[in-house]
Amino acid sequence: MRSIRHHLALILPLFAILFCIEYLLVFDRITESYENRLKENYSLILVADRSVKLSDISHCDTLIEKTEPIDAENVLRRIKAGLNHESVEKIRSIMPLFISIKLRRYAGIERIERLKSELMSIAGVRDVHIFEKVHDRLYAMLLFMKISFTVFSMLIGAISLLLLMKQMTIWQFEHKERMQIMSLFGAPVWLRSGVLFRLAIVDALLALIFVVSALLYLVNDSSVRELLSAIGIEPEIILRLDDAAVLAGVSFAIATFSATWVVLRFKEEQ
Amino acid sequence: MRSIRHHLALILPLFAILFCIEYLLVFDRITESYENRLKENYSLILVADRSVKLSDISHCDTLIEKTEPIDAENVLRRIKAGLNHESVEKIRSIMPLFISIKLRRYAGIERIERLKSELMSIAGVRDVHIFEKVHDRLYAMLLFMKISFTVFSMLIGAISLLLLMKQMTIWQFEHKERMQIMSLFGAPVWLRSGVLFRLAIVDALLALIFVVSALLYLVNDSSVRELLSAIGIEPEIILRLDDAAVLAGVSFAIATFSATWVVLRFKEEQ
Amino acid sequence: MRNVIEANALKLAYPRHEPVIKSATFEVNTGEFVFITGASGSGKSTLLKSMYGSMPLFGGELHVGGMDMGSISGSKLYKLRRHIGIIFQDYKLIKEWSVEKNVMLPLIIAGFPKDVCRAQAQKLLTHVKLSHKSDKYPLELSGGEQQRVAMARALAHNPFLILADEPTGNLDDYSSQVVWDLMERANEELETTILVVTHHIPEMFSAQYRHLMIENGVIYEIH
Amino acid sequence: MRNVIEANALKLAYPRHEPVIKSATFEVNTGEFVFITGASGSGKSTLLKSMYGSMPLFGGELHVGGMDMGSISGSKLYKLRRHIGIIFQDYKLIKEWSVEKNVMLPLIIAGFPKDVCRAQAQKLLTHVKLSHKSDKYPLELSGGEQQRVAMARALAHNPFLILADEPTGNLDDYSSQVVWDLMERANEELETTILVVTHHIPEMFSAQYRHLMIENGVIYEIH
Ligand SMILES: Nc1ncnc2c1ncn2[C@@H]1O[C@H](COP(=O)(O)OP(=O)(O)OP(=O)(O)O)[C@@H](O)[C@H]1O
Ligand SMILES: Nc1ncnc2c1ncn2[C@@H]1O[C@H](COP(=O)(O)OP(=O)(O)OP(=O)(O)O)[C@@H](O)[C@H]1O
Ligand SMILES: [Mg+2]
Ligand SMILES: [Mg+2]
After folding, report:
1. What distance in angstroms lies between residue D89's CA and the mean position of ligand 4's atoms?
2. Which domain holds residue C83?
3. Does one domain contain both B176 and B259?
4. Does the predicted interface ipTM exceed a cut of 0.85?
5. N or C: which end of chain C has fewer CB within 10 A?
6. For the whole model, what pTM was predicted?
7. Could you tell me whether strands C33-38 and C19-28 are parallel, antiparallel, or unpaired per DSSP bridges?
C-alpha cells in the first residue's frame, strides 16, 4: 500500500507533464489546421459596377488568392418565375456585379479591415461584405483556449516539478541513513543508489504507458470522436508516433535526473 | 531558502487548486451566457405559402418562443429601383412568406433537426433554413473546452493533493522526532504541533492572496480584456465576491486539514 | 503520600512477542535511590518505559506518583510526565534545537517565561560542565557530551522522579562522577526519587543504596 | 608491509571550530591491540573518523593501510573502507534492514553470494549470542543487543583493521566479556589490528596491551 503511494508520487507528476506536452503538441496542430480551414471558409463579397476589371481587384492586395464573379442567375432564378422576360432582363442589366474573393491565408480581423478599405478605394466598388464575424470569434476562442491550456500546462508543470522535488526530498529522508552507513562501509555509488534508479526507471516506464493508453483510449472513444468531429478535428491528430518518442524521452530524462539529483546531493555526514 | 521552498510546497498546490476552482466557476458562467446568446442568435427562416397561419407554427413545438413574418419589402427594395410598379406588385404577390422563428433556448443540433422536420410536415411550408452551422461549432468548441478544462483541473487537483500529501509526509519526517520527544516530556498536543498549524494557516492565506491577485491582474490586463471581448465575454465574470469566499474557505480547510492529519497520524513510538 | 512507584505482579510484553517482564513486584518510596541491573536484553529499559507510560501493561498493576498506569488517560499521563525527568539510553535530544533549548524543554512545557528557562538551563549546563557548548547542536557534540545534556534536561524542572537509563555508559570516570554527584545532590536536597539502570554501580554507592536485579523476567531485591 | 597506522603531527578540526586533535604522532603495527582513552569530548571519536576517511586532515599526515589519508581519492577510500571493520559509538545500524542483513552488509558490499553472506552472518550472530534475533529489526532490540549486532557486523568480513568506539558502553559484564573475547580471538587468530576507544579497559587486558591517551588534543603513550 505504502509502496503504491510512493510510486504514484513519481508517476502522477510525470503523467501530468507528459499529458500537458501532448496536449500542447496537439493544440498546435489544431490551431494550424483551423487557420487553413478559416482561409478556405473566409469569404468576402464585393459589390461593384460592371465596369470594374477583375484583374484590378486581384492585384489590389497580395492576400487575395482568387476572384470570381458570382453568377447572378442564381439570384434571379428565384424571382423570375412570375416576371416577364423583359423585366428580368431589366433587372439583370441594372444588377450590380457580385465578386467573390478567396484569400491566401487567414489573416485576422485587422488585416482584413485594411484589405477592405483598399478594395473600397478602387473606383466603381460599391461595397465589400465580409462574412467573418463568427469565424473570427471561433478563431479568438481557439486562441483563448490555447492561452488557457498553456497556463494550465505551466501550472501543472510547476506543481509536477515541485512534486518530483518533494518525492526526491522524501527519498533523501528515506535513503540517506542507509546510503550513509553503506558508504561508511565502502559501498560504491551504484550499489547504494541502485534501488533509487530502479525505482525511477520503472516509474518512468509506467507513466509513459499510462499516458499512451489514456491517449489511445481518447482517440478511440466514440463520444470523444464525435465531439472532435463537431469542432472539425480529426482524432488522428492526437498521438502520433514521433510524439510518443518525445514523451518517452522526457519521461526517462526526468526520472533519471531525479534519482541522480538525490544521489549527487548525498554527502557523507561528519 | 529552504523555508521558502517548503512554503512553496504548500502554497503552489493550494494555488493550483484554487485557480482550477475559479476557472471552473468562470467557465460555467461563460457557458451559460453563451447558451443564452446562442438562443438569441439562433435563427430559423421558414419559407411558406401565404396561406399558412402563424399560430399553427407557434404551437408546433414548445421550443418555439416567437414567430415573426419577415417584411418582404426589404427583399424587394433592392431590385425595385429599375422595375415598374406593376412588376414589383407582381413579384410581391407571388413571393413566398418568410417567417423568422425565435427559440426559447439553445437546444443542440439534433433537437433542431427534429423541429425542422416537424415544421416541414405543416401543410404549405416549403422550406426551412437553419443558420446554425457555425454557431453550433462554437458551442461544440465551448463544450470541448469545458471538458478539457475539467480534465486539466482534475489532473491539477490530483497532483496538488498528492503534493500536499508529500508535504505532509515531509512534515512528518521533520517533526516526528521532535514531537515524539516533546510528548515523552508531557507536552500537550497544541504545544508540540503549534508550529505546524501556524505554518499551514500562513500558507493558506498566502495562497489565497496570490490567487486573488493573479485573477485581479487578469481581469485588468488590457490584452486579456481584448481577448475576452473578442469571444464575447465580459471580464467582470471573473472573480466575484462570493467566489473569493469559496476560495478562502477551501484554502483554509485544506491547510488545516493537512496539519491536523499530520498531528493525528502521530503516534508515540514504543 | 503513597509510594512513588508500586508494581504488583507487573507483566510487560511487546506485541507479538514473549513477555519481557514476567512478574515484577516491588515498591519505591519517596526519596529513595535505586539501582536496577540485569543482563543486556533483560528488560531494564522496558521496565522504565512502563513507568513513564510508553509501554502498555500486559498484566498486573503499576502505580507511579499515585497514578494507575494501567488505566491512565492521555492528558493525565502528560501531566504526570511533566514531573518526571528521564535520561534515555539513546539520549533522545532534539536535533534541530540548540543544546540550551534542549535543556529548556521541560521548562518550556511547564510554561515558564523564556528568561527563567534560559537561566535554569545555563545553571544545569554549568553543572554538567557544558556551558561552553550551549549554542551547539546535539550532532556537534561527542557521545558523552550528549549524554550529559540529557542529564541536564532531566534535572531542569526539579522532577519528583528521575528515571535514568545507563546515564554514564559513554562517560569517562570524571564525567561519571559529576553525573553521580548531581543525582545524589538532587536526591538529598530535594528528596527526588531516583531509579538508575546501569551496568556499573559506582563503588561508593553500592552498599548505601538499594539494588534491584532483573533476571529471566523477574525482579529480585539484592539489597 | 608498512605500519597499519602512521600518524605524524596529525591535526584534526571541525569547520569553524578550534582543533580537536592538535598533534598526534604515533604508529600502530600489524596485529597490535591498542586501547585509546580520554575524557568525554577529548577527540577519541574524531581520531577514529580520520582513520576511515570521514574527517579531512587539518594538518600533518596520516597513513592507514599504506594509504595517505590526506590525499586519498573517492574510489580508493571506498576500497580501503571495505577492509576495515567499524563499531560506531551510536552503532549506525540500518533501520529498514533485519539484524541478519545488517551483519551481512560488508559481505554484500564485497560481492559475496547471498548464501555465503547469510552463513557468515549467522555464525557471527551466534558468537554475540543473538542468533535468535536475526529476523528482528534494530529498533526491536535493546541498546546492548544493538551494540552486539554492530560488533558482529564489524567482524563479518575479516577486516585487517577494527576500529571500535566504546563497544561495551551499553553491555553488562558478561556481554562485555563476550565482545572482548571475540576481539582477542580475531587479533590472535587472524592478526587483525584492533583500535578500541573505551572508558573502561578490562582488567585482564590492561597490562598486556598498548594504551594511548588523548589529553588537551595531544596523544600520549601510556604503555
Ligand atoms: N560534527 C561536529 N561539529 C563540531 N564539533 C564537533 C562535532 N563532533 C564533535 N565535535 C566536538 O569535537 C570534540 C571531540 O569530539 P569527539 O566525539 O571526538 O569526542 P570523544 O572523545 O569521542 O568524546 P566521548 O567520549 O564523549 O564520545 C567535542 O568537543 C565535540 O563537541
Ligand atoms: N520495540 C520492541 N519490539 C520488540 N521487542 C523489543 C522491542 N524493544 C525491545 N525488545 C526486546 O525486549 C527485550 C528487553 O529489551 P530492553 O530494551 O528492555 O532490554 P535492556 O534490559 O534495556 O537491555 P540493554 O541493557 O541491552 O539496554 C529484548 O530482548 C529486546 O530484544
Ligand atoms: Mg536498555
Ligand atoms: Mg566519542
Report:
1. 6
2. 3-222
3. yes
4. no
5. N
6. 0.79
7. unpaired
